[in-house]
Design brief:
The chain is α/β, with parallel strands linked by helices. The chain has 2 domains: 16-135 and 304-319, ATPase, nucleotide binding domain (Nucleotidyltransferase, domain 5); 147-299, Nucleotidyltransferase, domain 5 (2-Layer Sandwich). The protein has helices spanning 52-69, 114-122, 131-142, 202-205, 207-218, 225-233, 237-261, 276-289, 305-319, and strands at 16-22, 26-33, 38-45, 84-88, 91-93, 98-101, 126-130, 151-156, 160-166, 169-170, 265-269, 295-298. The radius of gyration is 19 Å and the shape is globular. The protein starts with 15 loop residues before the first strand and ends with a helix.
Length: 320
């Protein structure tokens, strides 16, 4: 099923791989061992507005930087790293490694064949998947979902991603959009989304949406959601109201997911979730009001979930 389609490749024991997570804000990469431990990592700003080739250069810079840290500078054969797992925003055909759909969060990303690019530019076997799928794999392997086989993941970052698994297997869907709740309609006729629809959940519960809420309600231009959270923590009533409205909408989305799939647990991750100390009690209040019985928890791996899940994909590819 993997997108390298190489003939005559024999599965061999691989001790370490690179996992990389490509998002609209940052490119994160790490060398990961078989037990899930992170041996080295790097983070670069994506600067996605500069286009596809720039983003790919950031990916290349990340990977080569990690390889150099292990004393591997050869472009012919990477002895110390067995494969590359790529998590990316957008819908990904896992069989071919191509991004089949992407919004303008990553300009020109749609149609990019990440597996072919990695093989030609980095001389690495690779597998690619959606970033939320990877994050769920990471949390199921090493994080909040350990020991559970029926799980949902919701990632709150520049956009909103989602994934779910049944019996321990990811459900990617016929069109590779399984779990794409960020583009489910939360408010019909609502805010325009960069996917072309109106009222998508991404326009209400993403990190970008949180910044817009802050600007509209407080009348202040925020650089990050963390600034809103800090103001709320210091008792700013307008910031508190922004977070309460935000978590009320997030609770609606989570309640709909819970009643549809009835999973063992829903894991909330991404950059916004990393600031959840202040607003998580607000979310729990709204979930209780909606009668949600499913366990909803914050991701334990934080922003590492995607890279660890991508690494897991790479290990699975080398074992198959």
């Amino acid at each position: 099923m993997w997108g390298n389609k190489e003939v005559g490749v024999v599965a061999v024991a691989v001790n370490r791989v690179i996992g990389i997570d490509i998002g609209g804000t940052s490119v994160k990469a790490a060398i990961v061992a078989q037990d899930g431990s992170v041996l080295d990592e790097i983070r670069l700003d994506t600067d996605a507005s500069r286009g596809r080739e720039w983003v790919l250069s950031r990916v290349s810079e990340s990977v080569l930087g990690l390889l150099r840290s292990f004393g591997d500078t050869s472009m012919d054969a990477h002895i110390d790293v067995g494969a590359l797992g790529i998590a990316t925003a957008g819908r990904v055909n896992v069989e071919s490694g191509e991004v089949v759909y992407a919004t303008d969060n990553l300009l020109g990303w749609q149609g990019t064949s990440l597996v072919t690019w990695a093989r030609e530019k980095l001389a690495l076997r690779a597998v690619a998947d959606n970033d939320a799928n990877a994050a769920l794999l990471g949390e199921a392997w090493q994080g909040a979902g350990k020991g559970k086989r029926r799980l949902v993941m919701l990632t709150l970052g520049t956009g909103v991603g989602g994934a779910y698994m049944e019996n321990g297997l990811l459900c990617r869907g016929v069109h590779w959009s399984g779990g794409d709740w960020g583009h489910s309609i939360l408010f019909p006729g609502g805010h325009p989304c960069n996917c072309g629809k109106k009222g998508c959940a991404e326009q209400y519960v993403s990190g970008s949406a949180l910044l817009r809420r802050g600007r509209e309600h407080v009348g202040k231009l925020y650089r990050s959601g963390n600034e809103i959270v800090k103001e709320a923590a210091h008792g700013n009533q307008e910031a508190i109201q922004v977070l309460d409205d935000y978590t009320a909408d997030l609770a609606v989305l989570l309640a709909n997911i819970a009643v549809t799939l009835d999973p063992e647990g829903i894991i909330v991750g991404g950059g916004v979730a990393d600031t959840g100390e202040v607003w998580w009690p607000m979310l729990e209040k709204h979930l209780h009001q909606f009668g949600v019985q499913t366990e909803v928890s914050r991701a334990l791996l934080g922003n590492r979930a995607g890279i660890i899940g991508a690494a897991r994909l790479a290990f699975e590819m080398t074992e198959s």
